[in-house]
Amino acid sequence: MPALDRLLRRQTPLVLLDVRWHLAGPPGVDSYRKGHLPGAVFVDLDRDVAGPPGPAGRHPLPASGDFEAAMRRAGVSGDRLVVVYDDADSMSAARVWWSLRYFGHDKVRVLNGGYRAWTEAGLAVTTDEPDVKPGDFFARPGRLPVLDAEGAGALATAGVLLDARAAERYRGETEPVDPVAGHIPGARNAPTSGNVGVDGRFLPPGLLRERFAQLGATDALDVGAYCGSGVTAAHEILALNLAGIPAALYVGSWSNWVADPANPVATGDA
């Protein structure tokens, strides 16, 4: 937090992206207009970071050209640091972090604790919207590993596939969004809420390593993650990254899995 404040005070060239997003609303842009970090540009997760919903999932990968254009509009350039934040827990910021890295931008960071931590520290916010100079970001997809439905199903048996949703959704007791409840057979439940403390900040890397080790996920195995539509699973990927564990994202996630009635569904704790 102080590090970003120092960079802004020194007018260090960087791109600051506000990606506040709420699954059930209200629109994140409403929060942005009420107050945001100085110089931050709003990025809409649904419009700018995902393709149209359909059989591929509710938040599938966008076309390379579409993502490139959205990031250029936000001022993203290939050689400039990008800092991403959301309300507090990095759930939506992590999807933008992952997407930028997947499409070839390595200099991207997430503001730990997000907007809430920034304001609680007494740091400046504004309602002024910046004049954005278009960036020159060039999308080069495939820079991070991804899974499709077949790969996710295989990994649940041959490696470790983590289900990042809440336990009741994993067990199939409730499903508020998708048409079928349950989980991919063999997947292990690791709700993303367990990656952060009550302040919304990530647990220290050592604690994250312990958490994932208890689930069987280590850097000695192939690891992947999914959720409902590939948003909170990106948070799992970021937490695994902090723990030193490479992992692949099943972008289509449960919303893609259940689009094919031939895919098996498990319920309960296993």
TrEMBL record:
InterPro entries: Rhodanese-like_dom, Rhodanese-like_dom_sf, Thiosulphate_STrfase_CS, TST/MPST-like. Keywords: Repeat, Transferase. The keyword Repeat applies. The lineage of its organism: Bacteria, Bacillati, Actinomycetota, Actinomycetes, Streptosporangiales. GO terms for molecular function: thiosulfate-cyanide sulfurtransferase activity. Residues 10-127, 160-266 form the Rhodanese domain. Gene3D superfamilies: Rhodanese-like domain (3.40.250.10). SMART domains: RHOD. CDD domains: TST_Repeat_1 (cd01448), TST_Repeat_2 (cd01449). Pfam families: Rhodanese. This is Thiosulfate sulfurtransferase.
